[in-house]
């Protein structure tokens, strides 16, 4: 990012990030005219119109954003994480475990999302 020098491996993530600096809000709710910088925020807003609420586990995950609660701890270094999946990935660092392998080139990754991005 030219504004804050934050790096992104995917250009679409950079474009989404740049909305923070430009104030651009390209995702608009047709019912209320409200606009959002991220598509996910629009979807959450639209759930209100549909009278759908996220289940309790989604609410707990969301609340951790505000509280900085990190209930998942590494037994080796005691570092805390908001999500168990992040702890699992963290624990793969010292072992070098990379269970997600690309079937085309054989390159392996610690996370399935990294493999998906690679493909």
Count of structural domains? 2
How are helices and strands ordered from N to C? HEEHHEEHEEH
Please outline the major beta sheet: 2 strands, antiparallel
Count of helical stretches: 5
Name the beta content range. Answer: 5-15%
Model regions low in confidence, pLDDT < 50 over at least 5 residues: none
Please identify which CATH superfamily of the largest domain we are dealing with: Classic Zinc Finger
Calculate the terminal CA-CA distance, rounded to whole Å: 24 Å
Q: State the helicity in percent bands.
A: 40-55%
Assign the CATH architecture of the largest domain: 2-Layer Sandwich
Could you tell me the number of beta strands?
Answer: 6
Mean pLDDT: 81
Radius of gyration: 18 Å
Main location: nucleus
Subcellular location: Nucleus
InterPro entries: Znf_C2H2_sf, Znf_C2H2_type
Protein name: ZN530 protein
Any overview of this molecule?
- It is a single chain.
- Helix content is 45%, strand content 10%.
- The protein is mainly α and 119 residues long.
- It starts with 10 loop residues before the first helix and ends with a helix.
